[in-house]
Amino acid sequence: MKSLVFAFFTCFAVTAAFAYDPLKLPETTLPAPLDFTVQDAKRDRALPIRVYLPATTQAAPVVLFSHGLGGSCQNNPYLGKHWSARGYAVVFVQHPGSDESVWRGQRPAQIPMAMKQAASLENFMLRVADIPAVLDQLTRWQSDETHALRGRLDLTRVGMSGHSFGAVTTQAVSGQTMPIGRSLADPRIKAAVMMSPSVPAAGSAERAFGSVTLPWLLMTGTKDVARIGAMTLGGDLDSRLGVYPALPPGDKYELVLHDAEHGAFGERSLPGEGANRNPNHHRVILALSTAFWDAFLKGDAEAKAWLNGEGPRSVMEKDDKWQRK
């Protein structure tokens, strides 16, 4: 325990030496998150979203987040709070059919099967179509004088992110080539962060990811294994680590957190995982993702220099792995 505390404060001291610090937050009070529902009339589909806004009233770059299997738009508030404090409008999207409704009200013995059934191609396609639907609605609200989001969103600078099933969703809308031979990417997305990414169940990783042109940041852990939906979502470690080698050079990054399990990217351990969580994991996730957004959504040269230099090592522990190309 002493060594962990020492490592934590040592990393903090080193980070403080950099002129650019992705963990530094302004001394301002953030507004409470706002909840809305996007009504996609074309598909008769209602999408709950939760929006974290920065303290400034100026239009802010937008970061979307797609939850994992069985999650909701209320998950991962640590990301929403930090990214919004750093000047982003953060939009958490909820995907009906693969959200918390899959397991709520089910008897414990029924949950694994319900979750496996929800990790389906049908729900994947629904999720992929949810993202442009949300962006379309945000565009309408941005110019609606009666709406709370009026003038708050800079939709020329959009980042996409997600965890697990949400990472698969993010891959699809930010440049992955589908087995059908075409892309489902939304051109409004300018950069993407995938937490627990995976290679496709069919076809080669090179074919799927070899044409990705956007900046991508991949995050996983040495124990990042999904116990439910693994067959459909590629939940083993080989699948997680198979994405980065297949990407072409050019603003591509990969973080592998030592001993991080699948739930490390959320707020709590998942069923079957260890109870002991490394508090530095969230710190690394916040630092690297923030620097990535600053570099590729705000065009911050100092952030990119931090990301491409020794900055990441200043917050990581010695057994964490980091690479870029």
What structural class should be given to the helix and strand makeup?
alpha/beta
Low-pLDDT sequence parts: 1-16
Shape: globular
Write the CATH architecture name.
Answer: 3-Layer(aba) Sandwich
Broad CATH class: Alpha Beta
Q: What's the helix count?
A: 12
Number of strands: 9
Radius of gyration: 19 Å
Distance between the termini: 35 Å
How many structurally independent domains? 1
User: Share of helix among residues?
Assistant: 25-40%
The CATH superfamily is Alpha/Beta hydrolase fold, catalytic domain
Mean pLDDT: 91
Q: How would you characterize the largest beta sheet?
A: 9 strands, mixed
CATH topology: Rossmann fold
H/E element string? HEEEHEHHEHEHEHHHEHHHE
Strand order of the largest sheet: 1-2-4-3-5-6-7-8-9
Name the beta content range: 15-25%
Please tag this protein with its features:
alpha/beta; 325 residues; nine-stranded mixed beta sheet; Rossmann fold
What does this structure look like?
The chain is α/β, with parallel strands linked by helices and 325 residues long. It has a single domain (2-324), classed as Rossmann fold (3-Layer(aba) Sandwich). Helices cover 34% and strands 21% of the residues. The chain has twelve helices and nine strands. The chain has helices spanning 2-16, 77-85, 111-118, 121-142, 165-173, 205-209, 230-233, 237-241, 243-246, 279-296, 301-308, 311-315, and strands spanning 34-40, 45-52, 60-66, 89-93, 153-163, 189-195, 216-223, 252-261, 321-324. Strands 1-2-4-3-5-6-7-8-9 form a nine-stranded mixed β-sheet, sandwiched between helices. Helix 6 links the parallel strand 6 (189-195) and strand 7. The longest helix is centred in the middle third of the chain and has 22 residues, at 121-142. It is globular, with a radius of gyration of 19 Å. 47% of the residues are buried. The model is unreliable at 1-16 (pLDDT under 50).
